[in-house]
Amino acid sequence: MPGGSSTAPWLIVGLGNPGEPYSGNRHNVGFMVLDLLAARAGGRFKSHRARADVVEGRLAGDRAVLAKPRSYMNESGGPVAALRDFFAVPVGKIVVVHDELDIGFGEIRVKQGGGDNGHNGLRSITKSLGDKEYLRVRVGIGRPPGRMDAAAFVLKDFSATERKDLGVHVERAADVVESLLQHGLAATQNAYHAAQ
Fold first, then answer.
1. Rounded CA separation 179/189 (Å)
2. Whether 27 is catalytic
3. What is the mean pLDDT of the chain?
């Protein structure tokens, strides 16, 4: 089975900032993907003591814990590490879904390990886990226009043009997560990287 121990659930984490003012931000695309996965799993998010909203269910035939940290993005690591400990999840079965500036809007890339590429959520998770070998589903949001600061860009809502296609990209990112659980990293990369 991809990912390691067959008894431990998968831990699927979507990154974002909590609260209504942030809900449409580019930085919150991880939350959008998790909301869709929760609907597919037939569950509703409930508050967990690990400072996260959690759905426990089945995804792609496997036991999975879906989580949205209730901390701000740059403190995501604490809730992720607490959930890892609570559910005894090995690092190879942790999947983090996040926005990515360095790939075009709507492109999706999957990898295991690597640096945080300036992403504060990933930096916090790597530090808290003490390990960077978790899986990442990187949802492209593109670079900011002109001289706009990247930090300002990620905290802006998707544009009207982007919103027309956003649902399709969120669906595809959710499909990628399910493929990771079902088929593993290499097969998912082959299937989805080639198709873009």
1. 9
2. yes
3. 94
